[in-house]
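Encode chain A's predicted structure.
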Amino acid sequence: MSDLPEYIIEREFNAPRELVWKAWTDPELLSRWYGPNIETIIHKFDLEPEGVWLNEMKWGENSNYQKVVFKEVSPPSKMIWHHFSSTDAEWNDMPNPMMPDWPHLLLTTVTFEQSGENTLVRLSQVPLECSDAEIACFAEAMANMDKGWGSGFDILADILAELG
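Encoded structure for chain A:
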């Protein structure tokens, strides 16, 4: 796996770890910041090993469906999941219609580390079970992934300030 590209984003939030964990695991809060600038509908959220998170990202009449299968859940310090990047409306894995070479499966690891009164969040994503074309697509896109995650993290920071 060391030869695969790994996307990493870190952000320190001005909030205690338990509150940051809640913002990642309470579907009502999560839907407010995950997928910035679009409507995020969480159809199912079972936060346990092998539990699923079924997510619809909606803009206008268009929807993108994603499925997550949790692999490890260690509150409030870590969660690991398999992220099926694109599914049909019945949650069946399918190629991404906007980026056909995008990896269909990502290993996502998120850690939450208390740092004084703040929390350091570290998210990493690595493509799994992928072709050379998918690896190349992911590696090329990594430079722009901070925009989406960063925008979501900005909204998350506002939500944490509001809750704190």
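Strands lie at 7-13, 39-45, 52-59, 62-74, 78-87, 105-115, 118-127.
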